[in-house]
Amino acid sequence: MTQFSRRIFLTAALLFLSAGLAWAEEVLLTIETGQGIETYDRARLEALPQVELTTHTTVTDGPQHFTGPLMRDLLADAGVTSDTVLALALNDYEIDLPVEDFTRYDVIAALTMNGEAMSPRDKGPIWIVYPRDAHRELQDINFDYRWVWQLTRIEAK
Amino acid sequence: MNQATFWRTTVPVLLLMLCVGLLVYGFLRLRAIEDSMRLDDATNMVWVISQTQVEALELQVVLAESPGDTGRIGEQYDLFRSRIDMLTQGPQLRFLERLEVAGPVVGAARAAQRLDPAVRQLAPYEEQALSREMGVLVRELNRAANRAMVSEWRVLSDRLGSYRTAVAQVAYSLGVGVLLAIYLGWRILADRRARLDAEILRERSQRLEEDLDRERATVAHWRDFAAVVSHQFRTPLAVIDSAAQRMYRRGQPAAPEVLEAKQATIREMVGSLDRLVDAALLIGRIDHQIVRPQQVIVDLAPPVRSIVEEMRRRHPGRRISLAVEEPELHAWCDAKLVQHALMNLIDNAVKYSPPDTAVDLTLFRQDEQVACTVADRGPGLSDAEAEKLFARFQRGEDAPAAGTGIGLWLAQRLALLLQGRIAVQPRTGGGTLFTLWMPETPPNQKEDAE
Predict the structure, then answer these.
(1) A149 to chain B: which residues are within 8 Å by CB?
(2) Mind listing the pLDDT tens digit for each residue in B207-221?
(3) Tell me, what's the pLDDT at A4?
(4) Which of A58, B15, B29, B449 is found 20 to 30 A from A152 (Cα to Cα)?
(5) From residue B351, how far is each of B1, B263, B337, B338, B408 by CA, in Å?
(6) Inter-chain touch B91–A61, beta carbons under 8 Å
């Protein structure tokens, strides 16, 4: 193998590796904590305690099964201490969420729906899911708009 | 069930039930409103449709600005797909079906789904076709958004209308309930007032009845009194008249002894008339409350002895005995009036018993009363007569019966005036026994002492 071909191979291998790493390390969620910025890839999100939640949603039929970390665990992990956070989605949806919601209810940052990872084409990568079936007061339009899907960024306010 | 029971019981109970029913109905309606005042359906469909429209337009822009840029096109296509996929499934699709725009929207969506850049890179003509499909979809979505808006406003308006109706019903039921409650309260008050009025009326009529009875008794009393008095006056006058005639019969004076006897008779009759006038006047004074007894606690033995002496003088041929059981017998009375009463009792006994029989008086004490009996051996009274006389005496209102004489009646009036009484009963062995009872102490004082 010539020097050139070896260089080609190395370059290709590096490229491949970096591409692979890039997929694995693709940032799904950015949290601006006020003191700094925390980024989360799938692995870091999955390293947090995973919670299962089965509930109806307003945009689907029948109960859906979700898994993902609790929002309060996620914010604690990032070091967010504010009372309100701004949630931003891929589709430019943005909404203020009171942090109290996450302490009062077991709200999760769902990564999977019915056992499959959610993609941006669906409602992924992250869907904020409220335990709607467990609390009657959550079955209200005032909470329905807090179900941010395609979540990509959280900013402490 | 009569009319009064119906109006006084059945109607109020029915109204009360109606009142409670209306309040319960109002309460239930309010609960229903509370439950329904919650936005839970897909009531934000206009927004969902418009967001899909935005992503479709964005995709058109990206396709126009960066043809062949797989990355940008892919990202925007994902965002578009997330919107259109959601819109064409589940509750959202059913909503579109209700608006009757599901067909065109789903058709345009299928066409766009066939041109998926993630499956294979799109050729330039395919990118143009995707852009055209976006244009079609945007127009369909526009129609859908219009209809959704109209539908949502209609739903909202219907809902507000039903709330208005419900609130009005609640208001009416509360209003009617309150009116009924006021009516019932008024009924209760009116009933109570009517009962009070009826009570007052009843008392008043009772008083009138009593007054009338008293007036009737008084009239009867004076009528009888007048009859008795005229009779009693006439008798001595007739005796005097006949005596006077005998004194001058055949134009010459009678023998001296006859003359003397007739004079004695005349004098006796005049005395009797005198006493009758006294008695009549005394009764009149008692009735007009001119005579007021001067009641004190006094030993009755001396005045009784004195009146017995007096009566012995008045009836020289008759034996009148007196037994006093205790040295002193104190009673609460007016001695003069007691003497008068006894005088009448003795007169009565003398008059209605044979001349050869005695009249026996006994003065004694019994049950905190001082009593004086006057007993004769006259024809006596049957139990029924005695009872009748006794009852009449108790009432003290009736005039004396014919033949009883004004004296008994006066004695009875005096006894009552002194807060005593006269009892009458047959005497063992024949005759009648009158007893005058006088209290030892004033009744009030006795009560105070207790």
Answers:
(1) 82
(2) 999 999 888 887 877
(3) 52
(4) A58
(5) 67, 20, 21, 20, 11
(6) yes
Instruction: Nearest by CB to B82, from A61, A120, A139: name it.
Output: A120
pLDDT of residue B389: 65
Looking at chain A, list the stretches that DSSP marks H as alpha helix, in order from N- to C-terminal side. 3-24, 42-47, 71-78, 100-104, 141-144
Distance from CA of B179 to the nearest CA of A (A): 38
Q: What is the pLDDT of residues A31-88, one digit of tens each?
A: 998 888 889 988 888 899 999 999 988 888 888 999 999 999 998 998 888 999 999 9
Does B268 fall in a domain?
Answer: no
Is B99 among the domain residues?
yes
The residues, any chain, with a CB within 8 Å of residue B279's CB and separated by 6 or more, are B344, B406, B407, B410
Query: Mutating which of B36, B78, B81, B152 best tests the A interface, going by the most A Cβ atoms within 10 A?
Result: B78
Whether residues B299 and B160 share a domain: the answer is no
Q: Which of A91, A139, A141 sits opposite B79 (nearest CB)?
A: A91
Domain co-membership, B28 together with B147: yes
Question: Rounded distance, CA B231 to CA B405, Å?
Answer: 10
The boundaries of the domain holding residue B376 are 295-449
Q: Is the dihedral of CA A95, A99, A105, A108 positive or negative?
A: positive
Nearest residue of A to residue B36 by CA position?
A140
Q: How many CB pairs under 8 A join A and B?
A: 49
Is residue B21 domain-resident? yes
The predicted pLDDT at position B317 comes to: 85
From B51, which residue of chain A is nearest by alpha-carbon distance?
Answer: A91
Over 80: is that where the pLDDT of A91 sits? yes
Q: Which of A88, A91, A135 to mutate to test the interface with B (most CBs of B within 10 A)?
A: A91
Prediction ipTM score: 0.74
**A132 and B CB contact within 8 Å:** no
Is the confidence at residue B391, as pLDDT, over 60? no
Binary contact (B82, A61; C-beta < 8 A): no
Domains of chain A with bracketed CATH:
27-156 (3.90.420.10)
Looking at residue B398, which CATH number applies to its domain? Answer: 3.30.565.10
In this complex, the residue of B51, B79, B91 whose CB is nearest that of residue A90 is: B79
Asked whether residue B213 is domain-assigned, the answer is: no
Nearest 5°: the CA angle B292, B294, B297 is 145
